[in-house]
Amino acid sequence: MLLFELFISTNMPSAAKTTTSAKGGSAAGGQKKEEPASRIRVKIRAYDNRIIDQATKTIVETAERHDAKVVGPVPLPTEKVKFTVNRSTFVHKDAREQFEMRVHKRVIDIINASPKCIDALMSLSLPAGVDVEIKM
Q: Which of 2, 42, 91, 131 is most buried by a 10 A CB count?
Protein backbone atom coordinates (compact mmCIF):
# COMPACT_ATOMS: atom_id res chain seq x y z
CA MET A 1 0.00 0.00 0.00
CA LEU A 2 2.86 2.37 0.80
CA LEU A 3 4.37 1.81 -2.65
CA PHE A 4 1.03 2.63 -4.27
CA GLU A 5 0.74 5.95 -2.33
CA LEU A 6 4.28 6.85 -3.30
CA PHE A 7 3.50 6.12 -6.96
CA ILE A 8 0.39 8.32 -6.86
CA SER A 9 2.17 11.22 -5.17
CA THR A 10 5.04 11.22 -7.66
CA ASN A 11 2.91 10.93 -10.80
CA MET A 12 0.00 13.22 -9.98
CA PRO A 13 0.72 16.87 -9.23
CA SER A 14 -2.44 17.45 -7.16
CA ALA A 15 -1.68 14.49 -4.91
CA ALA A 16 1.90 15.67 -4.45
CA LYS A 17 0.66 19.05 -3.27
CA THR A 18 -1.62 17.51 -0.70
CA THR A 19 1.09 15.24 0.65
CA THR A 20 3.56 18.11 1.08
CA SER A 21 0.97 20.29 2.81
CA ALA A 22 0.02 17.42 5.12
CA LYS A 23 3.66 17.09 6.16
CA GLY A 24 3.97 20.85 6.72
CA GLY A 25 5.95 21.58 3.57
CA SER A 26 3.74 24.48 2.53
CA ALA A 27 1.86 27.22 4.36
CA ALA A 28 -1.55 26.03 3.12
CA GLY A 29 -3.51 24.20 5.74
CA GLY A 30 -4.86 24.75 9.20
CA GLN A 31 -2.03 26.98 10.39
CA LYS A 32 -2.85 30.37 11.88
CA LYS A 33 -1.41 33.31 10.01
CA GLU A 34 -0.08 36.01 12.26
CA GLU A 35 -0.37 39.58 11.19
CA PRO A 36 3.12 40.85 10.42
CA ALA A 37 4.22 43.30 13.08
CA SER A 38 5.22 46.69 11.77
CA ARG A 39 8.97 46.89 11.90
CA ILE A 40 11.10 49.95 11.39
CA ARG A 41 14.80 49.46 10.73
CA VAL A 42 17.02 52.41 11.55
CA LYS A 43 20.56 52.36 10.15
CA ILE A 44 22.98 54.86 11.63
CA ARG A 45 26.41 55.77 10.26
CA ALA A 46 29.00 58.20 11.61
CA TYR A 47 32.73 58.85 11.64
CA ASP A 48 32.94 59.30 15.42
CA ASN A 49 31.93 56.51 17.78
CA ARG A 50 30.92 58.84 20.64
CA ILE A 51 28.50 60.73 18.41
CA ILE A 52 26.92 57.54 17.05
CA ASP A 53 26.41 56.18 20.58
CA GLN A 54 24.76 59.46 21.56
CA ALA A 55 22.43 59.28 18.55
CA THR A 56 21.48 55.63 19.21
CA LYS A 57 20.71 56.46 22.84
CA THR A 58 18.41 59.28 21.73
CA ILE A 59 16.58 57.05 19.22
CA VAL A 60 16.13 54.19 21.71
CA GLU A 61 14.82 56.52 24.43
CA THR A 62 12.35 58.11 22.00
CA ALA A 63 11.03 54.73 20.84
CA GLU A 64 10.68 53.40 24.39
CA ARG A 65 8.92 56.58 25.49
CA HIS A 66 6.20 55.84 22.91
CA ASP A 67 5.78 52.18 24.04
CA ALA A 68 7.52 50.50 21.12
CA LYS A 69 9.70 47.41 21.45
CA VAL A 70 13.34 48.12 20.61
CA VAL A 71 15.85 45.53 19.42
CA GLY A 72 19.39 46.81 19.46
CA PRO A 73 21.44 48.83 18.91
CA VAL A 74 23.44 46.19 17.08
CA PRO A 75 26.98 47.30 16.21
CA LEU A 76 27.93 46.41 12.64
CA PRO A 77 31.54 46.03 11.49
CA THR A 78 33.45 49.28 11.22
CA GLU A 79 34.26 50.15 7.63
CA LYS A 80 37.91 51.20 7.26
CA VAL A 81 39.12 52.99 4.15
CA LYS A 82 42.89 53.53 3.86
CA PHE A 83 44.61 56.00 1.57
CA THR A 84 48.33 55.85 0.82
CA VAL A 85 50.02 58.95 -0.62
CA ASN A 86 53.59 59.92 -1.37
CA ARG A 87 55.08 62.49 1.01
CA SER A 88 56.87 64.29 -1.78
CA THR A 89 55.62 65.16 -5.22
CA PHE A 90 58.21 63.61 -7.50
CA VAL A 91 61.11 61.79 -5.83
CA HIS A 92 61.47 59.68 -2.69
CA LYS A 93 59.07 56.91 -3.57
CA ASP A 94 59.79 55.10 -0.29
CA ALA A 95 58.49 57.97 1.83
CA ARG A 96 54.76 57.50 2.10
CA GLU A 97 51.96 58.41 4.44
CA GLN A 98 48.84 56.44 5.19
CA PHE A 99 45.51 57.95 6.19
CA GLU A 100 42.52 56.03 7.46
CA MET A 101 38.83 56.86 7.52
CA ARG A 102 36.56 54.81 9.79
CA VAL A 103 32.78 54.60 9.39
CA HIS A 104 30.99 53.26 12.47
CA LYS A 105 27.57 51.65 11.92
CA ARG A 106 24.64 50.64 14.12
CA VAL A 107 21.25 49.04 13.41
CA ILE A 108 18.15 49.45 15.56
CA ASP A 109 14.89 47.56 14.95
CA ILE A 110 11.73 49.15 16.32
CA ILE A 111 8.75 46.80 16.47
CA ASN A 112 5.08 47.77 16.80
CA ALA A 113 5.67 51.50 16.54
CA SER A 114 2.64 53.75 16.79
CA PRO A 115 2.13 56.67 14.39
CA LYS A 116 3.12 59.05 17.20
CA CYS A 117 6.37 57.14 17.61
CA ILE A 118 7.11 57.39 13.88
CA ASP A 119 6.44 61.14 13.91
CA ALA A 120 8.71 61.55 16.94
CA LEU A 121 11.51 59.60 15.23
CA MET A 122 11.20 61.67 12.06
CA SER A 123 11.43 64.94 13.98
CA LEU A 124 14.46 64.05 16.13
CA SER A 125 17.39 66.43 16.14
CA LEU A 126 20.55 64.36 16.11
CA PRO A 127 24.18 65.55 16.33
CA ALA A 128 25.92 66.75 13.19
CA GLY A 129 27.85 64.07 11.32
CA VAL A 130 25.31 61.31 11.87
CA ASP A 131 23.63 59.74 8.84
CA VAL A 132 20.28 58.10 9.65
CA GLU A 133 18.41 55.85 7.22
CA ILE A 134 14.90 54.72 8.17
CA LYS A 135 13.19 51.82 6.39
CA MET A 136 9.64 50.71 7.10
A: 42
How far is Cα 76 from Cα 81, in angstroms, rounded to an integer? 16
For residue 66, report the phi and psi dihedrals to the nearest 5 degrees.
-100, 25
- Please, are residues 52 and 46 in contact by the beta-carbon 8 Å criterion? yes
Domain ranges across the chain: 36-135
Residue 134 amino acid letter:
I
Taking the whole predicted model, whether its pTM rises above 0.85 is answered as: no
Rounded to the nearest 10°, the torsion over CA 51, 54, 60, 65 is -140
Look at the alpha carbons of 62, 64, 130, 108 in this order and tell me if their dihedral is positive or negative.
negative
Provide the CATH number for the domain formed by 36-135 in this structure.
3.30.70.600
